[in-house]
Write a structure and sequence with these properties.
With 394 residues, the chain is an alpha/beta fold. Helices cover 42% and strands 14% of the residues. The strands form two sheets. It has a seven-stranded parallel beta sheet with strand order 3-2-1-4-5-6-7, with helices on both faces. A six-stranded parallel beta sheet has the order 10-9-8-11-12-13, sandwiched between helices. Helix 9 links the parallel strand 9 and strand 10. The chain is globular. The C terminus is likely disordered.
């Protein structure tokens, strides 16, 4: 039986799909399953191909919701891209004949879901954020099941006409392996001195230049108290290496406490989580749920330009339940960051409590739950399970 996955073309869409596919491959029915992905061409497709997924690329266009002469012209062109993508998706789906389409949302999924709905293919949809993206709000009416990363009472924006029994709170699928790091292995991989608490700085799959800029301004002050593992983004690595080289001319002794990477692959990231005492990160759902699953306290810096301001909503919900501190981008300044870091590490009981609350909010088996619902839809199992419960729902 064939399953088609689709998404928007970022790590936040691709990695959850990989997590679900891994769980499906672990099942005793895996020999009966064949996996396809239809979406726009991007740098993350290689991750799917490595997992044995057959990839078909289509045209896809983003619709910008702000009004400028450039955006109006761009939207006009993208309408034709979306139409072309729908035709391509329709033809691919006709060839593949899948039993199910699983959409992770994002602009790349729109043509696939629209084409699939016309072919009467059952559609499962997953929403990672508290505020659904534009594509998921449009395509939700075609979905047989709508999986939510956050409880329904905290998820706002889906059309009210959609029957409530279609919604299922399951958390955000993360790669199970990301929780299986080893602290001792991490110390060796990152060449840690083991002399100071470890600060893990993440900017999402693309890195975050504005986070990098602030870190550079107070890097020496941070390194006086912490050892730092810093994922700065592949595109930022060369510039960061040049700038840190200049910074360390002032204090060569602190250089050994700073470990800079353009991107942390799964193997490195799982060990980075195990050695970290605190994480500074953007507030994409993928990063949030990985941090929670590893039971780590965090400082979340929402991306101001995120669609529907969803990162801000995500972050404040996690802060509300005590697992994180939110610092808005406008407040993310060197002196303010240092003040908060001093506060955290002067009160070990605070970090300990945040760890407990992070663990309570985590749903590490999300991918497994979704895989079971998929297998049920395909007729392999009878998965009569009540709506998953988590402390965030209480």
């Amino acid at each position: 039986m064939r399953i088609v996955f689709c998404g928007g073309g970022t790590g936040g869409h691709t990695f959850p799909i990989i997590a679900i596919i891994r769980e499906l491959k672990k099942s005793s029915f895996s020999s009966n399953l064949e996996f396809f992905y239809i979406g726009p061409k991007d740098s993350f497709l290689e991750n799917l191909i490595k997992k044995g997924v057959k990839v078909k690329t289509i045209k896809a266009g983003k619709i910008r919701r702000y009004i400028t002469p450039v955006s109006v012209f761009s939207n006009f062109l993208n309408i034709f891209k979306i139409a072309g993508g729908c035709i391509q998706a329709y033809l691919y789906l006709g060839q593949i004949k899948p039993r199910l389409i699983f959409s992770k949302g994002g602009y790349g999924s729109l043509p696939v879901v629209l084409a699939g709905s016309h072919l009467d293919i059952p559609i499962f949809l997953h929403e990672s954020d508290t505020i659904p993206g534009w594509t998921n709000r449009i395509t939700a009416k075609y979905a047989k099941r709508i999986f939510l990363a956050f409880p329904q009472k905290y998820t706002k924006g889906f059309p009210k006409k959609i029957p409530q029994n279609r919604f299922l709170f399951v958390g955000n699928p993360i790669r199970e392996e990301i929780t299986k790091g080893d602290k001792e292995a991490g110390k060796k991989i990152f060449n840690l001195t083991d002399e100071k608490p470890v600060l893990l700085i993440l900017g999402g799959s693309q890195g975050a230049q504005r986070i990098n800029d602030v870190i550079l301004l107070c890097l020496l002050d941070i390194l006086k108290l912490f050892e730092v593992i810093h994922q700065c983004g592949k595109n930022n690595l060369e510039e960061m290496e040049l700038q840190t080289k200049v910074i360390f001319q002032k204090n060569e002794d602190l250089k050994k406490y700073y470990h800079l990477y353009g991107f942390l692959d799964e193997e490195k990231l799982k060990h980075a989580y195990k050695v970290a005492d605190l994480v500074i990160s953007r507030a994409g759902a993928g990063s949030i749920f990985e941090i929670l699953a590893n039971g780590l306290p965090s400082i979340l810096v929402p991306l101001p330009e995120s669609a529907q301001n969803h990162q801000r909503e995500n972050a404040y919900l996690i802060e509300k339940f005590g697992a994180s501190l939110v610092i808005e981008q406008t407040n993310f300044k060197p002196h303010f960051l240092l003040k908060k870091l001093y506060l955290f590490f002067s009160k070990p009981e605070l970090l300990k409590e945040m760890r407990k609350k992070a663990k309570k909010l985590a749903i590490p088996n999300s991918a497994k739950l979704i895989a079971k619902y998929i297998l049920e839809e395909l007729g392999f199992i009878d998965f009569k399970n009540s709506r998953p419960y988590n402390k965030i729902n209480g």
